[in-house]
Amino acid sequence: MPAAEVPTTAAANAAAASFAALEARLDYLDAADLERVRQAYRYADTAHLGQMRHSGEPYITHPIAVAAQVAEWKLDASALMAALLHDTLEDCGVSKADLLERFGAQVAELVDGLTKLDKIQFSTREEGQAESFRKMLLAMARDVRVILVKLADRLHNMRTMGDMPRSKWGRIATETLEIYAPIAHRLGLNQTYRELQDLSFRHLKPWRYSVLAKALARARQRRGDLMQKLQHDLQAALADVGLNARIVGREKTLYSLYRKMDHKRQSFAQVNDLYGVRIILPRVLDCYTGLGVLHQMFKPVPGRFKDYIAIPKVNGYQSLHTTLVGPASINIEFQLRTEPMDLVAEAGVAAHWLYKAGLAGHTPDGELGTHWLQSLLDIQNETRDAAEFWDHIKVDLFPDSVYVFTPRGQIMALPQGATTVDFAYAIHSNVGDHTVAAKVNNEQVPLRTELRNGDVVEIITAPVSRPNPAWLGFVRTGRARSRIRSHLKSLAQDESRVLGEKLLAQALRAEGLSQLPGSADGDKPLWDKLLRFTGNRSQEEMYADIGLGKRSASMVAKRLVTLLTAEGAKPDALLLTRERFTAHENLSQGAVLLDGAENASVKYATCCRPIPGDGVVGYLGRGEGLVVHTDDCPVARRLQNKDAERFITVAWADEPVRAFEVGIVVTVVNGKGVLARVAAAIAAAEADIVHMGMAEESAQDALDLRFVISVRDREHLDAVLRSLRRTQSVLRANRGPTSTSGG
Fold first, then answer.
1. DSSP class of 589
2. C-alpha to C-alpha distance for 627 and 334, rounded to whole angstroms
C-alpha cells in the first residue's frame, strides 16, 4: 500500500470506529438513554481493543454498524446497548455477571440470548438444524428484540462477506437464505428480508447474480424515461381528485427475478412485471379512491387484485395490490397504503418501537407479530422432541394464508390447505380437543375439508370427544399437530401405566406373592429401593415402561420379591405351585382382556389381523406396547422361538366395544359388474370395506380381489364369506392376507 494512503485508511477506520458515526442516528433517545448507550460503546470499545475484522478494520466497527441498523428501526436503549455488546461475552472474556452489574438485568439477558444464538451452527440437514432452530425461536418468543438484533448482525455480516474467506460463503449464505430471511419475512421486516435474499444469492451464485444484474441495468436504462413519465402522469391524475400522494418506483429484487425465471422456466425477456410503484396516501379512504383513479388510467390484469387493508396478512402487513397493463404493454404492480402501513410493511414487528418513537397520531399495534411467537411457546410446551418441533413450525414459517371467518365475523388467518380442525385449534386448544363436527357456510362438512378464503366456519364440540389419531393425516398447522400428538402420547402413557401395573401384579403372582405393596407411607422406602433398581423417577413411570415393553415385568417382580422377603414376607407355596404349572410365563391368572377400547397401548398385528373368536397371544414389543397376534401366526411363532419370555396371556372380553379389521381374498370370474356385485354382497352381510386391492393381471379370466373389511367377530366373518360364496361370478372366498403386487 502506498504511504500516502495509510493516513486516509487510518482516518476512515477511526471515523467508522467512533461513537459519533452512531450518535447522529440516535436523536430519538432522551439524554439519559443516550448516556447509557455511550457507556455501552466505551465498554465494548475497550473489550474489543486490538481485535480486527477480516477487512483490516477495527472490530468495534461491526458492533457500531449493527447498532446503527437497530437505530434505524428505532429500538430502545437496551436493544442498542445489546447490539454494541453482543460479541463481548463470546470473544472478550467478559462474563454475564459483569454485564449484569454494570448495565442491569435486561441488557445482560439480551446479550446472553444473542451469544447463545451466535454459537448456533446450522447444517443443511434437518436433524442438525432442529435443536438449534428451536433455541432461536424460543429466544425470539421470550423477547423479540433478541432476534431483531441478531438479524441486524446477520445483515451487516452479509454486507461485508466479501472480506471473509470464500470457503465460508456457501454455508453462511445458505443458512441466511433458509433460516434468517424467512424469519425476517415472518416478522414483516420486508426490506431486511429482500436484502438478505439478494446478498445470499450474490454469494451463492455469483455468476448468475452478475448476469441478471447487468440485464436489469440495461432494462432500467431502456425503460427509465417511461417509468419517470408514468410517475409524473400518476401524480397529476391523483392531484386532480385532491389526493396528495408520495410515489415511489421500485423494481423486483434480483433473487425474486431469478426464482421466478427458475420456477416458470422463463428467460429474462419473458418476465414482464419487473417494475412496481408504491403510492403512499394520507388516509385509508384515499387508498380506495386512488385505486379507482388507477383503474381508470390503465386496464387491470384479472385476478391480480388483493385487499390486504380490509384483511391484513398475519405479520401485520396492509396494502391494496393491483397489477395493471401500463405503457408499452408492461405489467406494473401498484401498492397503495398509508404512512403507518408503509412503516409496518418495511419494519414489521420493529414498527412497534418506530411508533413509540413518535409517529404522531398513531398508536402501536401491540399484537404485531406476537401471535406467531406465542404459538411457538405453545408448541414448545407440548413438544419436547427437537426434530418434531422443527417439523411443526416449518410449515408456519412461510404461509400462503387463507382468511376465514368465525360465526361472529372475526377474521382468522390460516396457512393454505388448513382444515376445519386447524381452525378449531387456532380458536383454542380445548375447542380443537373436543371437536366432533364442523359447518362451513352453514353446511355440515367432513373435518378434513380444506378451507377457502371467505368461508364462515362453525365448530361443533362435545365434552366427551377427544383428538383422533387420523387427524394427523390432514392437519396443516404446527399448533394442531403438536396438540394432537401431545394428547395421544399422554393417552398412550396412561394406558401403558394401567397395563404395566397389571403385568407386574401377574409376574409377582408367579413368584408366589398375591398382590403388590400399597402406596402408604410405610411402603415408600420399599418403592424407593425398587425405583433405584429400575432407574425410574416414579411408580407411574416404571409401570408405563413395563407396559411399553421397555422393562421386563418378571425381572422387576424378582427384585421386588427379594426386597419383600428381606422385610419378612413369605411366598405362598400353593399359589407358587399353581402358577409354575402354566407354560413358561403365560400366566393362568388375570389374563389381559381385549375389548377394542385399548387405543394406543394395544396394537393388533396387521400380518394376521386377529378378531374376536380367534385364539390370540400377546407380544410385549420393546417400546411399542402390547402387540396381539393370532396363535397360529407365522410371525408370532418366529418371535416365540427367539423371544419367548416377552409373550403374555391375552383373552377376548365377552362384549368387544368395536368392530375389527380382517383380510379376505375373493377369487372371481373377471367380467363386467363383478366388483359391484362383490361389494354389494359384503354390504348385505353388514360389513364395511376398509381397503381394496387387486393383482395387476386384470386381463386374466380369474382374478383375486383382496379386501380389508370390518367385522364384529368370527361368526360375523363366516356370514360375510357365506354371502360372497353365494354371489354370481365368485369362485372362492376365504380369509387371507391383503397385500397385492399391484397394491
1. S
2. 62
pLDDT computed for residue 724 by the predictor:
93
- Give the pairing of strands 401-405 and 730-735: unpaired
Structural domains present in the chain: 5-206 (1.10.3210.10), 214-356 (3.30.460.10), 399-476 (3.10.20.30), 487-644 (no CATH), 660-735 (3.30.70.260)
Nearest to 408 by CA among 461, 457, 373: 457
Active-site residue, 715 included: no
Look at residue 692 in the predicted model and tell me its pLDDT: 86
CB 498 within 8 A of CB 547: yes
Residue 90 designated active-site = yes
- The Cα 353–Cα 388 span in angstroms is 34
Q: How far apart are CA 729 and CA 670, in angstroms?
A: 8
**Following DSSP, what letter does each residue of 403-425 receive, concatenated?**
EEE-TT--EEEEETT-BHHHHHH
Residue-by-residue DSSP string for 303-334? T--EETTTS--TTS---EEEEEE-GGG-EEEE
Q: Is 291 helix (H, G, I), strand (E, B) or coil?
A: helix
Q: Can you tell me the distance from the alpha carbon of 601 to that of 619, in angstroms, rounded to the nearest whole number? A: 12
Q: What is the pLDDT of residue 395?
A: 47
Residue 408, beta-bridge partner list: none
Query: What letters, b where the CB count within 10 A reaches 16 and e where it falls short, cover 723-743?
Result: bbeebebbeebebeebeeeee
Whole-number pLDDT of residue 722: 93
Give the CA distances from residue 243 to residues 232, 235, 239, 277, 318, in Å, rounded to whole numbers and listed in that order: 14, 9, 5, 16, 20
Low-confidence ranges of the chain (pLDDT < 70): 1-17, 90-91, 116-142, 223-224, 264, 266-274, 314-315, 347-401, 491-492, 514, 519-522, 548-550, 552, 569, 571-591, 597-601, 621-625, 695-700, 738-743
H helices of 464-605, in order, are 478-510, 524-534, 539-547, 553-566, 573-580
Please report the pLDDT score of residue 741 as a whole number: 37
Q: Give the position of cell 454494541.
A: 84
Decide: 647 and 617 in contact? Cβ < 8 Å: yes
Catalytic residue among 72, 90, 307, 450: 90
**Residue whose grid cell is 406465542:** 374
Q: Which residues contact 561 (CB under 8 A, 6 or more apart)?
A: 508, 511, 512, 513, 569, 571
Residue type, 274: L
pLDDT tens for residues 126-185? Answer: 444 455 555 556 555 567 778 888 889 999 989 988 888 888 888 888 888 877 887 787
Write down the pLDDT at residue 127. Answer: 45
- Structural Rg of the chain based on CA atoms: 35
Q: Are 336 and 310 in contact (CB under 8 A)?
A: no
User: 3-class SS at 162?
Assistant: helix
Displacement of CA 235 from its chain's centroid (Å): 45
The answer to whether 112 touches 150, Cβ cutoff 8 Å, is: no
DSSP string for 621-656: ETTTEEEEEETT-HHHHHHHHHHGGGEE-EEE-SS-
Catalytic residue among 23, 33, 72, 91: 91
